[in-house]
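Late entry, written up from scratch paper. The run itself happened at the end of the previous shift, but nothing got recorded in the book at the time, so transcribing now.
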Amino acid sequence: MNIIRIIFYFYLSLNFYSFIHAQSFIEPFESLPASEECVITLKSGEIVKGTIKSGMVALGKITSISIEDESGQKRKFKMKEGLVQSIKIKLGKFAKAVLKMQAAGKSLKSMLTTDYDEINKREWAIYELALSPKKKDKYELMQLLNPGFDSVFKVYNDPWAKETKGIGGLTGGEKKSYLVVKNGAKSIKIEKSKYKYKKQFSDLFNDCESIMRKYSSKNIKLKWEDFAKHITEFDKDCGNSNKNKVNIEIETPTNELTSSTVAVLEQPEIEKSLLPVVREFDQVEKLKYEDQFFEYESNLRQLKNQIDSLKSIVTAFEKKQTMPNLSREILDLIKTPEFEYRVELKNGTVVMGDVISESDSTLILKTQIGQLVLKKDMVIRKNKYEAPQAKVVFLGEPFVNIYPDRHEFSGKIKNVGEIRADFVRVISSLFTQTTKAAGKDSAFVKGSRKIYDSGVIADTALEPGQTATYNFPVQIKNRRKVQYHTMDIRWNSID
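Output as recorded:
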């Protein structure tokens, strides 16, 4: 056990070391981020701003998205139409939390090395149109993974990328390929392979002298894990945004044989302004090991006395608390009258009862106190009485992520009724073109925590006006071809 523990701590230390020193691309979204605000840029140059109403993702790619623009008009964009140039989706707290859980759930290494601070600061998820690496020239919307250092190379998430395998959940889950576009050309797939990446490295960075000179040394090994670092160094040294350099001609003495040389120097004022100001701290006198900063013995005695006093108060309180011993059968015998009509009179009186008979001039009601005869000219209105009920509805269309073996549904629901809805459950059914069932599943939403009289404790209740989110997969039976789906909400009303 001690050996295993030592190996485990050593592994953790290596991960923390790599987390501090390694550079990586941003964590991509595996599905459409849950958001409301988005900015869509069309090929025509038109910029459309609005709120997302629904969307569909198939095999990691956005296939369609529906929004309501700033003028209130509903618009739907299908990627196969080729009108969309890019999509920016505003990231809220919920989307960032989902991304953190996605990264942490891959492996222990991923949980330790993920840059959670970058996720917190990230404002947008960016999707851009680029040529896929397939033989046919086909444009697809891809998720950008290197925003900020993409002046030459744009690195996109590869939806078909395989992932590394792990051992016992410690490692694994890392992408083994990316799609890379250089200067707007057709994308190429960069894969994790010792010899393949070495060849691809030369093809990618051969036009940057400083990069090739640095990594031509045999002492420096080309590693797939440093791919993000190589992209960053290229953008810094040879990128289009590298404009902070000035040429200064240096004259040499006449008695030397060398000609005048040109040196490229960084502007010292810019570098100096980027350096943080280090604050000097006064030396703090440390407490000696054998010294005490408080008298713990007297404090422990006082704390013990307070705990004993609190115990006696709680014991006395529990003795006074009595609960009536009523069985369920006795409670069921207590019947509350349920009347069909609500009658409102001119003097403001409201009468609840059942109509026994009605004529042109009178109305006879059966009420709790007996039969009541009312004159018709005293009645303002007579309506059928409906008890307050819960009503749970969908807020917009669900987000659907389509995979070969399942469909994943996510969205929001709201209780627009007058009373609480208990055990709220969202149901989704899949059907083929011939209306044959292809799959069905459901999930309870996470709402308010409620303790029922039966002793059941659940957090699936929705108070009036309360909203909740749902997210669950529906497995496809026997690889049937799904044509459409239906959604339903079920709930109970428990007094």
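Residues 392-492 form a domain with the Immunoglobulin-like fold (CATH 2.60.40).
(Scratch paper discarded after transcription.)
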